[in-house]
Amino acid sequence: MVMITRRLYITNKNEEKILVVLVALIVSFSLYYYLQNRYVELRPVILKEYYQPIILFDNQLYKFAEPNEVPANYYKNIEFVIDHSIRDYVKRDGKIYVRYKLMNDLNLIWNYTNRTGNAEWIMQEINEDKLKLQKFEDSQSNK
């Protein structure tokens, strides 16, 4: 009986250290995965207006726009742009939320911010949607 109870408890110090390291790794990975995949509010991004001699990271070129710096049609067109670019977003209380790992790529978010003011791109996407709808309707009518 004593042998059985000993096996239920960790008796070796090395086994205890290994278990602590494994638990720490599992908790760290879970926390990292949660933080990268949570939803954060989508905010407009613009280029910084000063020159920096050495740029180590691409995100150093951009900054989050203040309310007075936002492009004119941003709030009107952002849902259309995001809907045609990203499928994984949530809209709550009139605000759009995207994954943190996506929001961390400021170059991509800057591209979306610019597309909200680009009437040519928006019209091109609308025309493509019309063509896709027409093809779908034709294929359904042929069946």
How does this structure look, described?
- The model has no long low-confidence stretch (mean pLDDT 83).
- The protein is flat.
- It folds into two domains: 1-37; 39-118, no CATH class.
- The chain has a three-stranded antiparallel beta sheet. It has a two-stranded antiparallel sheet with strand order 2-3.
- The protein is built from six helices and five strands, in the order H-H-E-E-E-H-E-E-H-H-H.
- With 143 residues, it is of the alpha+beta class.
Backbone shape: flat
- Low-pLDDT sequence parts: none
In total, the number of strands is: 5
Q: Report strand order across the widest sheet.
A: 1-5-4
Structure classification: alpha+beta
> What's the domain count?
2
Order of helices and strands: HHEEEHEEHHH
* Number of helices, where a helix is a run of at least 4 consecutive DSSP H or I residues: 6
Mean pLDDT comes to: 83
